Amino acid sequence: MSNPFRKKVLPLESVTPKAICVWGTHGAPGRTTIAINLACELALKGARVLLIDLDSQSPSIADCFGLLDEKPGVAAAFRLVGQGRLDLAQIERLSTSYDVACGRLSVMTGLRAANRWPELTREKTQTLIAIAKQHFDFVVMDVAADLETGIRQIVGVVDRNCTSRTALEVADQAIAVFSADPIGVRRLVDSFQNLSELFVKPILVANRLRGSSLGASARQQIEDAVMQLCRLEVAAFISLDIDSCDKAIMQSVPLAMMKRTSKARQAIAQLARLNFGT
């Protein structure tokens, strides 16, 4: 399947492969939107990018791309890891491939069935990421908000959240997305200790910035509160862009395929450029 990314760009210079984990607080702060569009912006610059949906709670990347007939994705990849058979050919078979200018974007959709949770082991997650880094310039992972251990089901303890924790532990860089409002900041603060135990200095991204929630000085208030409570600077602010985001949802395409006048798209492109050399 190909998408209409028309503009041709020169491939990136040789880069050291990086695994990027996109985590976000509870309350749907937009981590999947950030993950998808970061992956697209990296691919638009000529990088080979694999986007993996490792959200064990509510995987949605397939829906965002309008993939009604999903490929086997993560579930099959974990099974092949267990058999020692996962390689580039298998990753390509299990993923949906997009032509993105001179780059490459492969999308590996998530695991929806609850009865497959026992397959989400730490070892398989580590191996999947390690193998992916051998073949792609960037491996972008979308993970769930929950980071605690020991989620139970009737047959016993199944660590449903181990993919999120493992992805954060082995990532070369982590992005923490939170809503740019008082509730979003509080949720970040409440989760920050668990997050920082897995990745010490994530890139903090305040999403859906608007003055209506905190007034004209919303950005400064958020910067001050996060610095005081988390001892980290907010690296990026993504402006609320309802029209562009709604259009992207309606058309099942990333913001990166929309007009460059989209403020949200511009901010995500800048996030990619400043932090990942694109």
Q: Can you give a write-up of this model?
A:
There is one protein chain. The protein has 278 residues and is an alpha/beta fold. The chain has a single domain, classed as 3-Layer(aba) Sandwich (Rossmann fold), CATH 3.40.50. Helices cover 41% and strands 20% of the residues. The protein has 10 helices and 10 strands. Helix 3 (73-83) packs across helix 5, helix 5 (122-135) crosses helix 6 (162-170) and helix 7 runs parallel beside helix 8 (218-230). Residues 1-11 have low confidence and may be disordered.
CATH superfamily: P-loop containing nucleotide triphosphate hydrolases
Name the helicity range.
Answer: 40-55%
Tell me the strand percentage band.
15-25%
What is the number of domains? 1
Q: What order do the strands of the largest sheet run in, or round the barrel if closed?
A: 3-4-2-5-1-8-9-10
Structural class: alpha/beta
Q: In CATH terms, what is the fold-level topology?
A: Rossmann fold
List the secondary-structure elements in sequence, H or E: EHEHHHEEHEEEHEHEHEHH
Shape summary: globular
Query: Architecture, CATH level 2?
Result: 3-Layer(aba) Sandwich
Distance between the termini: 25 Å
The CATH class, by name, is: Alpha Beta
Summed over residues and divided by their number, the pLDDT gives a mean of 90
User: How many DSSP-defined strands?
Assistant: 10
Low-confidence stretches: 1-11
Biggest sheet record: 8 strands, mixed
